Amino acid sequence: MKFAVLLFVAGTLVAASPTNFTIASRQDPADLMIFVCDQMPEVCHNMCYGALCLNIGSALTFDNPSATDKRNRRKAAGCIESGGNRCSVRKGHAAGFQCDEYPFASSSPRGTITDRINRCVPAGENSKQGGIINAFYRASFCKGGPCDFNVEFSNAGNIAPCQMDCTDSDNEIIGPGSGTPAQDGDEADDGTDDDGGNPEPTGTSKKKRVVTGARHHYLTSSGVEIDIRGIARIGQRAVTVVARNTTLWDEQAKSHAYDDENDESQYDYMLPNLEVRDDVIIAELS
Ligand SMILES: *[C@@H]1O[C@H](CO)[C@@H](O)[C@H](O)[C@H]1NC(C)=O
Ligand SMILES: *[C@@H]1O[C@H](CO)[C@@H](O)[C@H](O)[C@H]1NC(C)=O
Known about the structure:
Layout: H1 2-26, E1 31-36, H2 41-53, E2 59-62, H3 67-76, E3 80-81, E4 97-102, E5 107-109, E6 117-122, H4 123-138, E7 147-154, E8 173-174, E9 193-194, E10 215-220, E11 225-229, E12 237-243, H5 246-255, E13 274-284
Parallel strand pairs: 1-7, 1-12, 3-9
Antiparallel strand pairs: 2-5, 2-7, 4-6, 6-8, 7-11, 10-11, 10-13, 12-13
Helix pairs in contact: 4-5
The protein binds 2-acetamido-2-deoxy-beta-D-glucopyranose (2 copies).
């Protein structure tokens, strides 16, 4: 008897869903933050490697962390090291790079794997990523946070880890994890971090995990094509931030004065030039 009732309820939901998918899916917390990867290929490499190759996953929570929490997360990712991190000129790295973390310091993974990783990326790409994240956090459903979202990728066809090709770690390092908290003022003046003489973390890129799950190809309502590991739902929200004037955005990103101690609002001046496309998934392409 109970079984029959359950069947009836399930049948009703299935029948109702085609006409009502938008309302239902907008209650789904796993809205999608889409990165258009030809705008920032090196940064996308880092996100894809963490999300897909190391199975940190793409499900993140923006939890409005304090400056201290963010500093500790950057340290856990390996971006705060004695005398400047590995991407700094002080450590012999070429100029113009920054230490990029995944997950973002403003966020935590919702999955079971809590590793944080880092990669040295061109500073301009890091600034573009910051501008996009800031626009997303301020937009519609997130409203300044907190909020849950999934990071997904567009135009990432030639970035190996975005295609779940994890054969080459290519400068990806897993951070030392949470150890001693970072200290106030643990920041180098050259835009990299300095933990004031604590021992160097010994990062490793060897902990590669088994990659699972097929990639699916979807189209959003404004014509953005995205690749997703797993299944997106028709009607699911997918937010893409694109520059109105890409020349201006390149200029802004290249001259951005990065401030680790400041929150995402340091990118507010980019907002007028960024179009937030509050799309939904309209079709599965393959
Ligand atoms: C859509 O879903 C809402 C909320 O569940 C419900 O109130 C509404 O009647 C549904 N509309 C249709 C056309 O089924
Ligand atoms: C785009 O930005 C550049 C650089 O600031 C500017 O020179 C150009 O006029 C802008 N283009 C348009 C169409 O506004």
